[in-house]
Automatic annotation (TrEMBL):
Signal sequence coordinates: 1-24
Entries under SUPFAM superfamilies matching the protein: Multiheme cytochromes (SSF48695)
Superkingdom of the organism of origin: Bacteria
Pfam family, one: DHC
Protein name, as recorded: Cytochrome C
Length: 188
């Protein structure tokens, strides 16, 4: 009888260990062996819209449409005369084309894919700052923001996605390909 109890205890410990490892690794975009090591990081589709890339990319990285919900993009486009302190006014034609692209690919569109996760825990329906989304904060919570971002001369701001995500312009945000300038991988 004692051997049976020991086996049950060992099995319970083993299952607890597996559950603990799975939970600890739950925000890992590549999964956990043996369930898969496929590259399943965040890859936005339809990132090459010429008008959007030209107009918005003239001042900053053209963020993939999947990073905000439709209402957020509409709010941004409705206030281009005061776009984070700058006048980014466009003519009507590019605005309509850009809006159509953004709404068709927003985080709450059928084209969002995994990016719909960004909507988890939203406190407002029309956020305009990607860096203030709860899911974004969760994915970046292990980073020492002052040392690695704000005081890092090669980064400077969390809005500079392409400083650490070298394929951000193509819409790829895989945590396993992150390279924070001036820091070693073991630092983050």
């Amino acid at each position: 009888m004692q051997i049976k109890t020991q086996k049950q205890l060992l099995l319970a410990l083993l299952l607890s260990l597996i559950a603990g490892i799975s939970y600890a690794d739950s925000d890992d975009d590549k999964g956990w062996w043996p369930f898969g090591k496929k590259a399943r990081g965040y890859q936005a589709a339809n990132t090459n819209q010429p008008e959007y890339s030209f107009e918005c990319g003239a001042c900053h990285m053209p963020y993939p449409a999947q990073l905000l919900p439709k209402a957020g993009w509409q709010r941004i486009l409705g206030s281009l005369d005061d776009h984070f302190g700058e006048d980014a006014t466009l003519t009507k034609t590019p605005v309509a084309e850009i809006e159509a692209y953004l709404l068709a690919n927003a985080a709450d569109s059928e084209n969002a894919g995994k990016f719909s996760n960004l909507l988890r825990g939203l406190k407002t329906a029309d956020p305009i700052r990607i860096t203030e989304l709860p899911y974004y904060k969760h994915k970046h919570d292990e980073i020492d923001s002052k040392r690695m971002v704000l005081n890092n001369p090669d980064v400077g701001s969390f809005s500079e996605c392409n400083a650490c995500h070298d394929k951000a312009k193509e819409g790829t945000f895989d945590e396993h390909t992150v390279k924070i300038p001036n820091f070693n991988k073991r630092d983050y």
